[in-house]
Structure formats: structure tokens, C-alpha cells
């Protein structure tokens, strides 16, 4: 069997470990021939690939980024999975001698995997995204690393904030789901965590900040990039569109900081963490999770479990139908937000 490995969407720590796990199990144990397409779907359509064997994946588990590269190049023109577009994928697979795909990516990539499965194309998903917003898995690899980086930033910002008696606002990633903000804020002891799922008013945020000041402390506010103030229809955006044609988010911390200062009289500074969350070495947790995910995906291909995704359920990797994984984004439940909101301020 000849398997094509392809990464799509934003990079995420642990992707190299997932490739290594899949290749070592697929080639060394299951007897597959495996190739990796460079820069996602671009490499597939342009025939740009490398052979994946033990030598090719030697020593890559601790590395950040991804050796194959990744991109937001869509597999279908204009994003439409028309019969003609699906047939183009099938035809290209035949030309390359590919029997099936292992697709490493987030919600968009796994949605594509599900569309391919429905069209009869054998595909298995490996869930990665720092946002942790993909259904069918308790955690995606990359999330733990992003949270660890954000928690370290909170620790560092707290010391300078306390030194100057300032309120510090840290913006982290999270377009539609606030998992990074929630977990990093809890880990770092932030006094306020603002997430896309639950708008808050500037009056309420200011009340929390003043409460912290009245206790002789300086506030640390963590805000996800997709957070919207109460009564505001749209998230804060920068110029341009992202690779999926969506408005490019970012800058909500720069909006919040002067509003907090205006309402409280407390000097306030904003920091945008940005792509730092994606970079660097993956944590041990992400390396292990990604490796186990790769192994499970290779075994699922051997067993013909196409149309599934290797998700984490408790401490077990289970093959989840792709249709269940991509039905809707996994957002922060109200109960999770409410339990920490009681301690804000």
C-alpha cells in the first residue's frame, strides 16, 4: 500500500512527531510505502514530494514546525467540492499511485478528509490545532505547547506589571474558541480571561481590574483574538484576509488596553503573543500525543478504517468517524467558563 501524508492549515507543534509515529509504524511494521507532499495540497497537485522512511524521520520528534511544510492552499478550486474537483483529486492519486491519505490538520483539513471519504477517497485524519477547537478528540496536539508558551508570557508580564502598578493585557490566539485563553489564564493565575464564546462589557472588565487594584495587586487580563465586547457585532480585525478568505483577526488587546485605562485610570499596556504560540519545541505531552496519533492512524490504514480520525478519548486513542469530528467546532462550554468567572477580579 502506498500512503500519502499531507499537512494543511496553520503549523502546530507536534506535527513532526505525528509524521514520525505514522512512518515508523506504517513502513517498519505495516510494510507501507509512504510519501510526504510538500506544502500541503500544492505538493500533491504539483507532484512535489519526498519518500518517507526511517531515515527521513530520524530525530524529528523534538523539532518545531513541520519538515513537509504546510499551507492553506485549498484542495478544491474556490473551496467547492464539486464532482469535477473531487474527480481531479482521484485522477491525481491514480497518477501518483496513492492508495490513501493521512491528513494532518485542524477543522478545515478534517472537513476535507470527510468530503474525500464521501467521494470514495480513502482518508484518515490526524487532529492538530493549537486552538483545540476540533470535535472528536479531548485534545489536539499543539494545544499544550501553545498554552505553555502563553502561561510563560503571563508569568513574565506579571512581574513587569507589578513593578509599574500597571494592568497588562495579553492577547492570545483563538478565533472562535477560547481554550488557550482559558487554560493559560488558569495556569498563570490571570485575574480575567476573555473568550469569544462569552462577551463581556467594558464596565464589567473595568470592575474586575479595579477590584484587583483595591487588593494591592496589578491585573493580568488574557484575551483571545476572537473576543468581542458586549454589544459589538464583530471581532477586531487587521487588514486583509487569511488563507481561508476570512478577515484576519488580531488587535483586540490594543483596543481593550486604552478602554481599560480610560475607565479605571490605571496605566494599561497590551501585548500580542501572535505566532510565538506556534513556534519552538513541542512539549513532551504534545510529542507523545502526536506520536500515538500517528501510530494509531497507520494501524487504522492497515485495518481499512478509512473515514476516521485518531482522537484522544480519556487516555486512549480511538478512531472517530470524521463526520462526527467535523460537525461543529468544540467551544468552551458555559459551565467551564462560569466556574472560573466566579474568581475574576
Descriptive overview:
The protein is α/β, with parallel strands linked by helices and 345 residues long. It has 2 domains: 2-141 and 282-325, Rossmann fold (3-Layer(aba) Sandwich); 145-278, Phosphofructokinase domain (Rossmann fold, 3-Layer(aba) Sandwich). The chain contains 11 helices and 13 strands. A 7-stranded mixed sheet has the order 3-2-1-4-5-12-13, sandwiched between helices. A 4-stranded parallel sheet has the order 7-8-6-11, sandwiched between helices. The longest helix is centred in the middle third of the chain and has 22 residues, at 143-164. The relative contact order is 0.18.
Primary descriptors:
345 residues, alpha/beta, Rossmann fold, 2 domains, ATP binding, metal ion binding, 6-phosphofructokinase activity, fructose-6-phosphate binding
The succession of helices and strands, N to C, reads EHEHEHEHEHEHEHEEEHEHEEHH
Distance between the termini: 58 Å
Count of individual beta strands: 13
CATH class of the largest domain: Alpha Beta
> So what's the oligomer here?
single chain
Q: What fraction strand?
A: 15-25%
| Outline | elongated
Arrangement of strands in the largest sheet: 3-2-1-4-5-12-13
Catalogue the unreliable spans. none
* Average pLDDT over all residues: 93
Determine the fraction of residues in helical runs and give it as a percent range.
25-40%
Report the structural category. alpha/beta
Largest sheet properties: 7 strands, mixed
CATH topology of the largest domain: Rossmann fold
- Based on the structure given, which CATH architecture of the largest domain is correct? 3-Layer(aba) Sandwich
Total DSSP helices: 11
Amino acid at each position: 500500500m502506498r500512503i500519502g501524508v499531507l499537512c494543511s492549515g496553520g503549523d502546530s507543534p507536534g506535527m513532526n512527531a505525528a509524521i514520525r509515529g505514522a512512518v515508523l509504524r506504517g513502513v517498519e511494521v505495516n510494510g507501507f510505502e509512504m510519501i510526504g507532499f510538500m506544502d500541503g495540497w500544492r505538493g500533491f497537485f504539483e507532484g512535489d514530494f519526498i519518500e518517507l522512511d526511517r531515515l527521513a524521520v530520524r530525530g524529528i520528534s523534538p523539532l518545531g514546525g513541520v519538515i513537509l511544510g504546510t499551507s492553506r492552499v485549498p484542495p478544491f478550486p474556490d473551496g467547492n467540492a464539486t464532482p469535477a474537483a473531487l474527480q481531479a483529486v482521484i485522477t491525481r492519486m491514480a497518477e501518483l499511485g496513492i492508495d490513501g491519505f493521512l491528513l494532518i490538520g485542524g477543522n478545515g483539513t478534517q472537513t476535507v478528509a470527510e468530503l474525500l471519504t464521501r467521494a470514495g477517497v480513502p482518508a484518515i485524519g490526524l487532529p492538530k490545532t493549537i486552538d483545540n477547537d476540533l470535535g472528536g478528540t479531548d485534545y489536539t496536539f499543539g494545544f499544550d505547547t501553545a498554552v505553555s508558551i502563553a502561561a510563560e508570557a503571563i508569568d513574565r508580564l506579571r512581574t513587569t506589571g507589578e513593578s509599574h502598578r500597571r494592568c497588562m493585557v495579553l492577547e492570545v490566539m483563538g478565533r472562535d474558541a477560547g481554550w488557550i485563553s482559558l487554560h493559560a489564564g488558569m495556569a498563570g493565575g490571570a485575574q480575567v480571561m476573555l473568550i469569544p464564546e462569552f462577551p463581556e462589557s467594558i464596565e464589567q472588565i473595568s470592575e474586575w481590574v479595579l477590584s484587583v487594584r483595591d487588593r494591592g495587586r496589578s491585573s493580568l487580563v488574557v484575551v483571545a483574538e476572537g473576543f468581542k465586547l458586549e454589544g459589538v457585532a464583530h471581532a477586531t480585525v487587521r487588514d486583509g484576509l487569511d488563507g481561508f478568505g476570512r478577515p484576519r483577526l488580531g488587535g483586540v488587546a490594543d483596543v481593550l488596553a486604552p478602554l481599560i485605562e480610560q475607565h479605571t485610570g490605571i496605566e494599561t499596556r497590551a501585548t500580542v503573543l501572535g505566532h510565538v504560540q506556534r513556534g519552538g519545541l513541542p512539549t513532551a505531552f504534545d510529542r507523545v500525543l502526536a506520536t500515538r496519533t500517528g501510530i494509531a492512524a497507520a494501524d487504522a490504514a492497515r485495518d481499512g478504517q478509512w473515514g476516521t480520525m485518531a482522537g484522544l478519548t480519556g487516555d486512549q486513542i480511538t478512531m472517530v468517524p470524521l463526520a462526527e469530528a467535523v460537525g461543529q467546532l468544540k467551544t468552551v462550554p458555559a459551565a467551564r467558563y462560569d466556574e472560573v468567572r466566579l474568581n475574576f477580579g
